Amino acid sequence: MATLEIKDLHADVVTDEGNKPILNGVNLTIRSGETHAIMGPNGSGKSTLSYAIAGHPKYEVTSGEVLLDGENVLEMSVDERARAGLFLAMQYPVEVPGVSMSNFLRSAATAVRGEAPKLRHWVKEVKDEMSQLDISSEFAERSVNEGFSGGEKKRHEILQLALLKPKFAILDETDSGLDVDALRTVSEAVNDYKSNNEVGVMLITHYTRILKHIEPDFVHVFAGGKVVQSGGKELADELEADGYVKYTTEAAV
Ligand code: ADP
Ligand code: MG
Ligand code: MG
């Protein structure tokens, strides 16, 4: 049983024109086994939250805490965060020309596990997960995300999740750009991972449609750089019906 605690987190995005405050006191606790949906309007800081937790250099935490089982995540390097069990599926996965998917995945697994996975076992593991995600085997030799469609990139993010086996997974709009079939495939892979591992999931999304596949235990409204309302599944239905207006006007004060 693991716990990820975000306490009064404030963070800036670092731009050429200087720092711009985005996170404005985020409080959220996620325990293993729980799925938390984060829903909020464009520009409210959801991706900033995920980057701040993952340790992206363009985001600077100015105050507050992120604790994984009481350990200060903010003092860890990006690699240490991954080894501690944090995983981020990015909203916009980056392309890495010249590095094959298969090399990338093996290096990432080696870094996270602390030793290189045994080759025969690894090859089978990758093959099984790729087939579950309907990823054709030719992708193994292609450069990371280069020329991948939006949906292909998202499938590969979930392939990494399945192989790296984190304790906490942040899925930043993994559903956007997926057609109905891809959404089902990706959701099944996430659910499969959830049922076989004690994982805490932070599922950032705009749409309730993914929540029909991946059932959240909690739903949080994110507006103006913080969590402004928390509830159960019914909150997602309310948001779908009424939008965020009620929350954005409150947060804008
Ligand atoms: P969300 O994921 O909720 O749509 P983001 O965290 O991506 O929101 O962005 C929050 C705010 O920070 C937005 O107003 C966005 O324009 C701004 N922002 C994010 N990254 C940068 C950047 N690199 N330069 C300038 N502004 C940025
Ligand atoms: Mg975003
Ligand atoms: Mg599996």
UniProtKB/TrEMBL annotation:
Gene3D superfamilies assigned to the protein according to its UniProt record, in alphabetical order = P-loop containing nucleotide triphosphate hydrolases
Q: What's the protein called, per UniProt?
A: Fe-S cluster assembly ATP-binding protein
Return one GO MF term: ATP binding
Question: Does the keyword section mention Nuclease?
Answer: no
Query: Into which family does the record put it?
Result: Belongs to the ABC transporter superfamily. Ycf16 family.
Q: Where is the ABC transporter domain?
A: 4-249
Keyword check for Glycosyltransferase, yes or no.
no
Record's keyword terms, sorted: ATP-binding, Nucleotide-binding
PROSITE patterns, per this entry? Answer: ABC_TRANSPORTER_2
Q: Which NCBIfam families match?
A: sufC
Q: What is the lineage of its organism?
A: Bacteria, Bacillati, Actinomycetota, Actinomycetes, Pseudonocardiales
Which InterPro entries does UniProt cross-reference here?
Answer: AAA+_ATPase, ABC_transporter-like_ATP-bd, FeS-cluster_ATPase_SufC, P-loop_NTPase
